[in-house]
Amino acid sequence: MKDLLDEDSLKYKYFIENCEKIAKNYGYSYIETPSLEETALFKRSVGESSDIVNKEMYQFLDKGGNDVCLRPEGTAGIVRAFVQNKFDKAGVAKRYFYHGPMFRYERPQKGRLRCFHQFGVESFGQKNVTEDATVIAMLAQIFAYFGIDTTLKLNSLGCSECMPKYKEGLLEYLQELSHALCEDCNNRIATNPIRVLDCKNQSCQNLLKDAPKITQNLCAECDEDFKRLQKLLDVANISYEIDTNLVRGLDYYNKSAFEFVSDKIGAQSSIAGGGRYDKLVEYLDGKATYGVGFAIGVERLLDLIETPKSTREGYMLVSSSKEGIQKLFVKAQALRLESQAILEYSPKNLKNALKLADKNSALYLLYIGDDELAQDKIWMKNLSTKDESLIDF
Ligand code: HAM
Predict the structure, then answer these.
(1) Which of 133, 183, 197, 331 could be disulfide-bonded to 245 (CB atoms 3.0-4.6 Å)?
(2) CA–CA separation, 291 vs 132, rounded Å?
(3) Which protein residue has the closest C-alpha to ligand 1 atom 21?
(4) For residues 390 and 381, what is the distance between their CA atoms, to the nearest angstrom?
(5) Nearest atom (ligand 1) to Cα of 72
(6) In degrees, to the nearest 5, what angle opens at C-alpha 146 toward C-alphas 73 and 22?
(7) pTM, entire model
């Protein structure tokens, strides 16, 4: 876990504020859900066979004996809120963006934190694959805005009609090979065979080269949607690679699944991921509602973000005497109704006052020396234009 402060917190704020602006341009509004949820929510959504639920949850019993955990991701809580507010029954379309800390008890390594932050969006009630293309376009716009080079990987995970048939064929293929696959793969063959495709082990990947591909086993509707998605990305000039091994680490996806990866922060690290989840509202006891969204891992990007050079703003208030400081204390309070004002509490001569104003990037220095105190005046200097004047207190 890592603190965000100084340069990093400035970058974090800058990143989130601009993501918010972009998401609002796409018709999204802000949602905030608790960081703590019932454990069952994630078991039923992210899935019991996923690493996140299996190994990585910060799970405990609260004082009332409720089984709760710190949220490992944002989607499940937002779906819960959508259902609890009965938007599913009302059949309304909703588009939300969110940001905040997520918690996963992962093995700490470069790019992996146990408390990290995501910016994400979730769109409910849109069947049309144009919505998938639109959330991908939003992500592409965000990365372009910050000048971050990415590769988009795209796959379709089919639906409840074609995926089970594909899984059967894949399972047959994998069982033949199970003696040569790693222990993790063998566990996955038993729990969720498509996650074998995702194995990071090169020798397993070599064995999987001839495995059946989901994109060649889609039903007519999923196939049409996947082709349409590619067409929409083509016309929007968003380049992508089809990756039939992209299965995502969370179980709730169907149809479109995508990840943005970058080489700039370690080998092919995922900086954002998402996809469609048309069954999730139903899994969480709601009325069937289409859903699609993404989340960006903010910490992974911080090194790649440059904030604009800070410009001078507000006032630095300094005096050569205790009496002057007391007067400036009153002045600072009045200024703070409108702008930034920083008051120095120990007496300083003018030379040091100017240095302080510069160090704090103030636009104005307000100074009360002995003469100004006697005359009930303030000496003011604009540090940009260098204009100086004597003003009434
Ligand atoms: P995810 O792929 O698990 O998806 O996470 C999204 C992003 O969070 C990753 O691409 C990565 O940048 C970042 N991330 C994940 N784990 C860590 C970690 N331990 N340390 C630092 N960064 C990390 C989801 O969470 C889905 N809820 C996305 C989604 C929204 N799908 C539909 N709607």
Answers:
(1) 197
(2) 9
(3) 112
(4) 9
(5) 25
(6) 65
(7) 0.94
- In this predicted structure, the answer to whether residue 217 has a pLDDT above a threshold of 90 is yes
Q: Which among 116, 26, 132, 34 is positioned nearest to 81, based on CA atoms?
A: 34
User: Using one digit for the tens of pLDDT, what is the confidence trace for 41-87?
Assistant: 999 999 998 999 999 999 999 999 999 999 999 999 999 999 999 99
Task: Please provide the average confidence, as pLDDT, over all residues in the chain.
Answer: 96
Q: How far apart are CA 308 and CA 14, in angstroms?
A: 9
Tell me, in angstroms, the distance from the centre of ligand 1 to residue 44's CA: 18
Q: What is the pLDDT of residue 250?
A: 94
- Which of 112, 118, 198 maximizes ligand 1 atoms within 8 Å of its Cβ, making it the mutation to test the pocket? 118
Cα 73 to ligand 1 centroid, rounded to whole Å? 7
Q: Which residues pair with 297 in a beta bridge?
A: 118
pLDDT bracket for residue 309 (50, 70, 90): confident
Which ligand 1 atom is the nearest neighbour of the CA of 122? 33
Neighbouring C-alpha atoms within 13 Å toward the C-beta of 165 = 11
Q: What are phi and psi of 17, to 5 degrees?
A: -60, -40
Ligand 1 near 314 CB (within 6 A): no
| Phi, psi (rounded to 5 degrees) for 97 | -120, 155
Which segments of the chain does DSSP mark as H helices, in order? 6-25, 39-45, 51-55, 75-84, 87-90, 130-145, 162-177, 183-191, 202-208, 220-235, 280-283, 299-302, 322-335, 350-359, 370-375
